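The methods section describes the discrete structure representation at length, but only in general terms. An entry of this sort, consisting of the sequence and the corresponding backbone structure tokens, reads as follows.
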Amino acid sequence: MRTGRRLFPLLLLALLRGLCHGREAAPSAVTCGSVLKLLNTRHSVRLHSHEVKYGSGSGQQSVTGVEASDDANSYWRIRGKNDGSCQRGTPVKCGQAIRLTHVNTGKNLHTHHFPSPLSNNQEVSAFGDDGEGDDLDIWTVQCSGTYWEREDAVRFKHVGTDVFLSITGEQYGHPIRGQREVHGMPTANHHNYWKAMEGVFIKPSMDSAKHDEL
């Protein structure tokens, strides 16, 4: 009987540790190294880039929003603000600084003090080579819980200029007709909510070779 009494606190402690571990490694969390598409929930378009440069402003590679869900140019990789700060498979925390690297061109989501071509907000571009750009590639994930969950709508706030990644519906003409302007806005509002959609999600706290495909 005494042995049972001694074992009970140990079993309870083990159970609590298991619950805490499960919370830290929530399977629904977006993780470092994952490749995904991001949907603007207000305008139902996905964050997109391609080898088309702006004809004004910085002249850098343009970033737009597209309605198609199957466009390969809408995939972005989640990375840390610097190498080693976002280990593969680690859940991304709310408030964490990240980079979003465009998979097909290797350029990072970027913004700076140039006016956007259609709305005159702040231009958002894709910048750098092979995933290496500068300090203006860094964004923080703004969400309400502990981790960025796949089902949650989140905001991305730019560290260097304090704007939010946004879409307000302006559409381009030739050569990217119908695509929406992506820009930075100084205020948090319903135009700057984004949700994780299709992608390859590295499972948290598991071997890096394992992933979920959506």
Remarks:
- The longest strand covers residues 45-53.
